[in-house]
Batch of 2 targets.
Target 1
Amino acid sequence: MKILGIDTSCDETAAAVVANGKEVLSNIVASQIEVHQEYGGVVPELASRKHIEAINYIVHKALAAADVTFKDLEAIAVTNRPGLIGALLVGVAAAKSLAYCHNLPLLGINHIEGHIYANYMVHDDLTFPHVCLTVSGGHTLLVEVHEGWRYKVLGSTQDDAAGEVYDKVAKYLGLGFPGGKIIDDLAQKGNPSAIDFPRPMRNSGDYQFSFSGIKTSVRYFVEKARRAGIRIENGQVNGKNTDSDTVTVEDIAASFQAAVVDVLTYKSVAAAKSTGAKTITLTGGVAANSALRATLKTAAAEIGAEVYYPPMNLCTDNGAMIAGIAYQKYQQGLRDELSLNATPNGAIEEKK
Ligand code: KG4
Ligand code: ZN
């Protein structure tokens, strides 16, 4: 059973064809990074316009790459929440038109459920319940995932998403966009204990997150250093710079990353421990982070839990994860009307 999945929730125009919820026949993504790069973040209006330009081409490319036509499809699934409203609307309008023209069932999908599902597409031994940490440019949340794709949201960020903070810190340091990979690479050459950035809400006793305080601390640190005439420069190859008038970008990156990773790891492992889950799944763009993967694996092993993450093309925004979870929802009887609308703030529906 083949489903076309469409996602235009942020800055990627994505379409994919997936058979039986797992077999990825095609997974096409048109990135808008170059458009948003000069602004150091995603500009919603530009994102919508770019989606309009790309959507038909990307859908047809996904069908061609999967070697199917609309006649071979059983349904069309589209992300209709949460995300940038103008961006979401482009995907939803396209999916509705195609469903109407080709007389196919339409399914509106929650983007976060797609991210959560991504691990299931590649890890056949994934058991339930497991704890899923979704970390991307738009989201940071911990969810307990039960059989039948029933969820209990344990906690989420109270302000910025982790990826958003990576992007902002990269902007303060003039490193480019998106900042995650750049900071990750620099951090590997720096000293994570060089600067003691705060770990907001680490010991709050719940599973909520807050990252804007870390971001502000880095900003103040950078501004204070610059005012004091301290140069912020790339360090030596080993990341150490003995010049006392210089602080290395590598040390700032490593110390910032240590703070973010520490909080994410601590809460994810605490969640696995308290729920008894033996697997922690990692998903979203920040799941590519080398320190997060390594630190979480080590900490999870201490409580006998394993960490799973999908390949990069299923970690970041894509249509395959949408078609995948849509297959499960289709089996459960979900069908949407052509009156389906987009909404920016869709929380995950919690089912007992
Ligand atoms: O899932 P994604 O592609 O899009 C959203 O739904 O936001 O995630 C993009 C985010 C960006 O904020 C980017 O900086 C971050 O993921 N990211 C990383 C890494 N690679 C991408 N953050 C930390 N370390 C990385 N290696
Ligand atoms: Zn996403």
Target 2
Amino acid sequence: MEKSTDKATLSAIGNAAKSGIETVWDRYAAQLPQCGFGQTGLCCRHCLQGPCRISPFEDGPKTGVCGANADVMVSRGLSRAVAAGTASHGGHAKHMAHTLLKSAQGKAPDYPIKDEAKLKAVAGRIGVSTEGRSINEIAADVAKMALEDFSERESPLTWAATTVTKGRVDTFLKFGVVPTGIDSSVAESMHRTTYGVDSDPVNILLGAIKCALADYSACHMATDIADILFGTPTPVATRANLGVLKKNAVNIALHGHNPLLSDIVTQVADEKGLNDMARAAGAPEGLNIVGVCCTGNEIMMRHKIPLATSSVSQEAAILTGALDAMVVDYQCIMPSLPGIAECYHTRLITTMPIAKIPKALHIEFHEATAKESARKIIETAINAFKKRDPNKINIPDVSTTAFAGFSTEAIVAALSLVNKEDPLKPLIDNIVAGNIYGVCLFAGCNTVKVAQDANYIAMIKELAKKNVLILATGCASGAFARQGFMTPEATEKYAGPGLKAVLTAVGQAAGLGGPLPLVLHMGSCVDNTRASDVAVAVANKLGVDLHMLPVVASAPEPVTEKAVAIGTWAVAAGLPTHLGVVPPVLGSKVVTEVLTSAAKDLFGGYFIVEPDPVKAAEKLIAVIGERRKGLGLSA
Ligand code: BF8
Ligand code: SF4
């Protein structure tokens, strides 16, 4: 099977093969054929009487030992995946909220509030008064309200209730899926899916949706606080792919998710002393910070840091032989990394107490002494550089320009150059006129189950041709960045005439002298909420609800439980949501039917599972057409 469409990744895997180093693709091959029970969701290990499996054939068992049938097993499994995703985004958001509080209390001096306007905007939205109060007083109240969203409360979560349309809130109330606590939603999901609790598959799925809405709240909170502490992104030009590693610099990759670590390391890497130290160690170009995965998106948008790679190809950064340290926090970090680093001089540095990996070097990162920890990390990388083996260095000469940093605020600012009084009007007018046929948000990961980036490339070409505006986050951003789709040239090459005209008009108003890039990079996975903010603003302005908009989402190469949680809240938000990999639900007719059809009657959104990318694009275009007709627009 083809492993990747990306030349740089293939070159790095080639290095691995020559040196006898195993990569994710070799480990996948060793797993084949994967278990059919697991693939269809028909196994359960929720109690010690198991594991139980249900036979998809006539003659095998139709229930587990306790009597759980296929529908119960599959819905419980899916619900637990959503809960795990929510716990991850919740952990990230809570970490941010605690740091904001410490910042406000003067206990985290390395985290001053950078974006006071964003702080005041968030405060205004959630009802924290700003009149005559100091920034730290406001920040402390915002942080406390954020922390209150984690435990069980009587009213809906602040970060859910204040960020969606009134219509959505009513729908969520009607179906009893309003979350009342982020952590408590995770706990409730674990409770109701343990041995002998919820055995009604539809009720279990509604529970999963409630938990997914808690995930949404956590994502939105994480984005808000990241902007408050580190600045709201504005468009920047940088580069992407492994060619951003430099032979003559100390290369440090920041990998994981939370900007609490990566932003500080990036800031400290600008210090002259550390760059002098790198030069004295024999690296004439000093320090070179690069990003990997979502934290890579965070520092790409805020600091123009180039994105080396992402997701399924994370090992490739080490396989260049030129990476001196890979610094990680949490989530999506393959446990294989230290084993690969060991074949080179690379130091794999873990930083979080909940995310250690044997054989990695652990330098614990504390908010109170953040910059000090960051300096120690960088010094470790410089020392590792001295041990580089020149014979092992093989950096693929592959990288491309990528424009990033299209936050909601940046998009509104660009549109206001076209219409100052009413920035959303040009966007809406062009949707109405059909110059923008619809909008597709690409999110999620790369998986070993698809040749890396292949689905993204095939889908974007089809959608752009039909004038669909493309937004991207997470490793979808990584894919489009390294494949050259985040450039004005891609707009010229692939956009249909209507879309090209709009992107050119806005790009020229913004002084770019050409079109905006074909893909608007909205950030990391938690930043999917930036895209939903744009959709909410448009819906509110049109006086309709989200499920009526010609807006769709796609995760063409999904991997993680976080992606499952995000996909589930996208459906609850009313978006038709495409998955390019079949999730483990086919063992249950009820669950499959609810996710792909009945959900539409309840929420307007539903899953479209289609592994063929061209067919998937056609289906999304057809759905956009239906939505347009529903609004009385030309289809
Ligand atoms: O949160 S897209 S592989 S890095 S899960 Fe992970 Fe998937 Fe990448 Fe970011 Ni999102
Ligand atoms: Fe088997 Fe039921 Fe236990 Fe699951 S909960 S392992 S189906 S007995």
